[in-house]
Amino acid sequence: MNDSVPERRLHYLNASYGLKSWLLTTDHKRIAWLYLVSVTVFFFLGGFFATLLRLELLTPQGDLVQAETYNKLFTMHGVTMIFFFLIPSIPAVLGNFLIPLMIGARDLAFPRINLASWYLYIIGGLFTLTAAAAGGVDTGWTFYTPYSSIYSNSNVALTVIGIFVTGFSSILTGLNFIVTIHTMRAPGMTWFRLPLFVWSHYATSIIFILGTPVIAISLTLVALERLFGLGIFNPELGGDPLLFQHLFWFYSHPAVYIMILPGMGVISELIPCFSRKRIFGYNFVAFSSLAIAVLGFLVWGHHMFVSGQSIYAGMIFSFLSMLVAIPSAIKVFNWTATLYKGSVSLDAPMLYALGFIGLFTMGGLTGLFVAALGIDVHVHDTYFIIAHFHYIMVGSAVMAYLGGIHFWWPKMTGRRYPEVLARLSALIIFLGFNLTFFPQFILGYLGMPRRYHVYPPEFQALNVLSSAGASILAVGYVLPLIYLIWSLRYSPVAGINPWKARGLEWQTPSPPPTDNFEVTPIVVQPAYAYDEPDEPEVIYAPEKAAHV
Amino acid sequence: MFGSNLPLFPEQASTLAPRVDTLLYFLLGVSAFFSLLISMSIVVFAIKYRRRSDSERPPLILGSLGLEIFWTAIPLAITMVIFVWGAKLFFVSFYPPPNALEINVVAKQWMWKVQHPEGKSEIDELHIPAGQPVKLLLTSQDVIHDFFVPAFRVKKDVLPGRYTTLWFEASKPGTYHLFCAQYCGTQHSGMVGRIIVMEAPAYATWVGGGGTGGSTTAAGQKLFQTLGCATCHLPTDTGRGPSLVGLIGKTVALQGGKSVTADENYIRESILEPRAKIVRGYEPIMPIFKGSVSEEGVMQILSYIKSLTPAEGAQGKK
Amino acid sequence: MSEPEAIHLHQFDDPVQQHEASWLGMWVFLGTEVMFFGGMFLGYTFYRTAYPQGFASASNHLDIWLGTINTAVLICSSFTMALAVRAGQIGQNRLVKIFLCLTIVLGIVFLGIKFTEYYQKFEEHLVPGSDFRFEGAFVSSAEIFFSFYFAMTGIHALHMIIGIGLLATLIVKTARGRFSATYNTPIELVGLYWHFVDIVWIFLFPLLYLVGRHLE
Predict the structure, then answer these.
(1) Quick count: other Cβ atoms within 10 Å of Cβ B69?
(2) Which of C140, A146, A384 is nearest to B273 (CA)?
(3) Which CATH fold would you assign to the domain C38-215?
(4) Is A325–B75 a contact, with Cβ atoms under 8 angstroms apart?
(5) What is the widest separation between alpha-carbon atoms in chain A?
(6) Could you tell me if the ipTM is greater than 0.90?
(7) Which of A247, A308, A324, C199 might form a disulfide with A295, Cβ 3.0–4.6 angstroms?
(8) The dihedral of CA B206, B211, B214, B215: what is its sign?
(9) 8 Å CB contact of A378 and B184
């Protein structure tokens, strides 16, 4: 071999070229990239809507856009961010890429269904974008009846069809993950040696499977009511608008756990790696993921404390909502304890992880405020709720997503990224986020309702603070977009394991070959065996070689 | 607090408000404690255990059952305290006291229509006396709205097709925000109003001053006659329909074996959708009044029916 | 006959793992279908509890004979489907095609009867919407009943049509020699799907057709 001409190694990115090889791929790693690009587009679209909202809210009067436009903006912000960014982001990008690698498999169980998942997501997205272009929808992402089924003059049916179709994308992804994790683990990869990222995606997939069909049928009924004048939710015709709320929240509450559990899985990978320690309380973290998924299905009525439901329903749901906080608390304590006597390094992924723990603690604790009946009566449908869920969805879930993208960027691309810029962006995001959303807790308790286009003048100062924070946050999000694209060309090449991390994905080259492993690994170590860096994590046996 | 340019805390203007705020302070304390605990731990650990060399070998620590039980039990205990406390407050705010002053509110896109029992009506404003429990009977003509008074710490959704109720006792005179807090369409953020709390004597003067059409109960009695209710609903059970004397709160036996408590929602439904529940022993012949009487009218008839106590006899008072 | 090719997909280690994964995948999918129909069953239960007399009155307007025949037809089709699966397991491809054809025929009979019923309801002005007419006291609750009737049986019929499409695909693949005693997983899985669609009907039939029938 000529030393001056390096051998061109084949991997999943250069194994084939051309648009068709990407649009018709069944390689889970390429599908992860298809999702990465799509969710990024929707993220910045949702962010654009949010920018307009926060600009309007700089002044108490409605002087930037008309009321109807404002209502469409917050609806589209919610729909885009929830259904087209938060729900798919970590599972469809990082989950798709990593789960086969982490369990030692060549691909997911059903690669063609995986591709179909992405196409369903795109078709759903196109329906929703068409609805936006055709004038938008103004019902709020919650589509409460009878406003959405009878009174709204906006493109409700088109939007709910888009969400319906994208829901099937989630269902198929969840199905794929469950079957893969059950049946395709490499030899030696027992359930309790699995990375906690896999456990959290398993729990998330249970919610995908059991919850998503219910919102599918709920939105179908709304569409049918709108198109054919049925009357299921119309009190004029004997229907009950509250039935819609029950059906809607039966999915949409577990949906918030869909949005956070994968992020928790990412954190469970980052903390041990950047402390070089085994995770504290592995079993407890694993079972907490399952507990969150199960309990998450039992608390939907806490969105309806003031809706007119009975006092006993309120009490039961409040009690159960308190219980669902406990497994999350257990995870926070276990992550923190992992740092104890560790060897802590504050690389960018770790900054995101530590920021996650702090902000998730605050967001989760404010969940106790709203689960408490007496307090929720006051703060329901105010900016307090908005602040609460943005602490979880933005302060936690988005930070976990970015932390994961940075951590696995070398594996996915074979390149490093600019570390100083990355740490700076993490800091900017953390500060911008807190400035945007902390004032909203105060605004909410003061009584400023949500979904308000105009507001009393005494609320202006806090709104200005919030909008100022949003501008900083926007900068923090644009920076990674720029430097990560830049890194594809100009950053140093990453080796097989730049973080010296444990985990099967780090036992194969960066980027991995199409079939992930040249030879199927046999796992001999527990997860996060950072205490045994000299011991081999896997062994290879020729008779288990991967099929060509 | 801190002047009107940067308010940080809402006024306490009801008997419930201080109790809600006390629970809030407890929650703030718990949150501050745990937030600081976790963030300080993270900061301390990140500094104290920062990586000094790449060859560091941290100790093998797998976990601690004792710690897991500890930090499961403590949060569980704290959340149970929060639950019980919040539930008790909710109980108080759910059930109005028996001597509450009843005021009817009909919401529609995008205004609040208020009807005082003495006959006075208002739009987007509600005058009430301080130191007197007030119960609102709420319904909507179109979509779901929500009656929210931050200074009182009360909120309730207002639904089409049924009644919801809300009660409070204002503790000090003043003018307070009323917001619609359930997104209801284009002018949702314009559906705001004022709660004007007056000292009791001033309120008595205000409410006595010339309402149109007489009291709610009198208006209800008039409708009861003009709509023909009186032809079937006689003072005794000998008419084509059951007697309505003493109806409110009574248990009514229905056809098909079930029974129901005659609350405000039942009476409203019986007027607008009489075939939904047929009283045992009677025929389903009552005309359907949906479309023939407004929500305000139903509330007036309801007020009249409530006044038909056995002591008064069939004629009712006022 | 030569062994059919491509029975082992590259992501799986061996045919046993592949079969296990496919089987689990179909059961998980059926789980999602339970939740999908479950939402409608929940809505139906809620309104039936609220309007028992209205629902009974509306249910009496359904043709109980057609409904009963359809139930028998669908149960028979599950039988022929089970026979097809069994034939596949013992490699009897000719029998597989026969039984799959019978299943399709029964499925089409079911759909034919169903659409006859729909047409009858259309003529009787019992389709919810602006043209809905119902004599008697229970107009609103009857319209809600018929909303659920059309939504539930309509979505069920859609699943039947998809099922017939799957069966037709299976017949084509069987004719091309894709299946044998060692590899017949797709037949088994379509069988699971078909039985599920049948079971949904077993629940729909009494809930929709037999409400208050004893009150003659």
Answers:
(1) 10
(2) C140
(3) Four Helix Bundle (Hemerythrin (Met), subunit A) (1.20.120)
(4) yes
(5) 83
(6) yes
(7) A324
(8) negative
(9) no
Query: What's this model's pTM, rounded to 2 decimal places?
Result: 0.93
Q: Is A434 on the interface with C (CB under 8 A)?
A: no
Between CA A182 and CA A203 the distance in angstroms is 12
Cβ contacts of B8 on chain A, cutoff 8 Å: 442, 446
The CATH number of the domain where A48 resides is what?
1.20.210.10
Angle between helices C15-50 and A196-228 (to 10 degrees): 40
One-letter amino acid identity for B250? K
Please tell me if residue B161 touches chain C, with a CB cutoff of 8 Å: no
Q: Which residue of C has its CA nearest to B254?
A: C53
β-pair partners for B157: B146
Structure-block tokens of residue A56: 């309007």
Q: What is the domain count for chain A?
A: 1
Q: Which helix (H) or strand (E) holds B303?
A: helix B295-306
Taking the Cβ of residue C140 and every Cβ of chain B, the question of whether any pair is shorter than 8 Å is answered with yes
> Is position A209 within any domain?
yes
Q: Which residue of C has its CA nearest to A247?
A: C39
Q: In tens digits, what is the pLDDT along chain C, a chain of 216 residues?
A: 444 444 678 899 888 999 999 999 999 999 999 999 998 999 999 999 888 888 998 999 999 999 999 999 999 999 999 999 999 999 999 999 999 999 999 999 999 999 999 999 999 999 988 788 888 778 888 989 999 999 999 999 999 999 999 999 999 999 999 898 889 999 999 999 999 999 999 999 999 999 877 644
Which are the contacts of A270, defined by CB distance < 8 A and separation ≥ 6? A349, A350, A352, A353, A403, A404, A407
Kindly report, residue by residue over C108-124, the tens digit of the pLDDT.
999 999 999 999 999 99
Domain membership of residue A154 as a residue range: 25-544
Q: What is the pLDDT of residues A2-17, one digit of tens each?
A: 445 555 788 999 999 9
Give the position of tokens 């587009």.
A41
Is residue A272 reached through a cis peptide bond, with omega within 30 degrees of 0 on the bond before it?
no
Whether A50 and A77 have beta carbons less than 8 Å apart is answered as yes
Count of residues making up chain A:
548
For residues A320-350, one letter each, b for 16 or more C-beta atoms within 10 angstroms of the residue's C-beta and e for the rest, the string is: bbbbbbbbbbbbbbbbbbbbbebbbbbbbbb
Q: Is residue A441 assigned to a domain?
A: yes
Tell me, yes or no, whether A4 lies in a domain.
no
- List of residues 6+ apart from B145 with CB closer than 8 A: B107, B157, B158, B180, B182, B184, B191
* Residue A9 falls inside a structural domain: no
Q: How many residues does chain C have?
A: 216
